Structure to design on (194 residues):
DNA sequence: TTGATAGGCAAGCCGAAACTTGCCTATGGT
DNA sequence: ACCATAGGCAAGTTTCGGCTTGCCTATCAA
């Protein structure tokens, strides 16, 4: 469960994909491909991005909905909220003024 | 910078090490080895744990201090606090009562 | 000083992960 | 009906991460 989330976040390309989805939710595979190439200059194939999206989906960080021949990808931040708490929980909360 | 933190957290053994340091801070390499073997039943060599600790240290999650022939490992949770905020930042903060 | 304890360095092995390549399915427009 | 667009599947390659093995250094105690 949490293992999938950490493994998904381990790759810099996947973190960039999450960034793009924060900026504009509900993008298709081709849109994400275009953004990664033009805005960040990384040259990867469409299948590479597709596989990254699959990893993000099994981690629960991306939820997909199909409409016709389009498949839209929505960001789901819920798995991100409890991740660090595993080690921050019972710590003395240092001065947070 | 953040890349090191995510890569460090990607491995389940390293996450277990952080758990052990939460439970008891300032352990030596041999102490951590013993705990991983006895409490969690994983059979890994001392060098494996040493390499894991090195990864955690370059990520800033573990800080070491040397005293004589002992090297104590202290947890540093600071890099964990801003990790998820990258994607949670401009999201509507749900009810935190 | 010798031995035991705590740790470090470096090369090598192996399996998993990232990426490619090639082909296939499905939807929509004209 | 036809073709272009959006996406999927599967095998192959290559790179990288985790782990081992073997040996070396340093500190302390007797």
């Amino acid at each position: 469960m949490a293992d999938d989330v950490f493994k998904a976040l381990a790759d810099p390309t996947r973190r960039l994909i999450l960034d793009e989805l924060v900026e504009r939710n509900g993008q298709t595979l081709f849109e994400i491909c275009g953004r990664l190439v033009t805005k960040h200059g990384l040259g990867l194939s469409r299948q590479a991005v597709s596989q990254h999206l699959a990893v993000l989906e099994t981690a629960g960080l991306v939820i997909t909905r199909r409409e016709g021949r389009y498949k839209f990808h929505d960001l789901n931040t819920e798995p991100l909220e409890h991740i660090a708490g595993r080690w921050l929980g019972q710590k003395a909360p240092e001065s947070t003024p």
In short: Chain B touches chain A through 21 residues (CB under 8 Å).
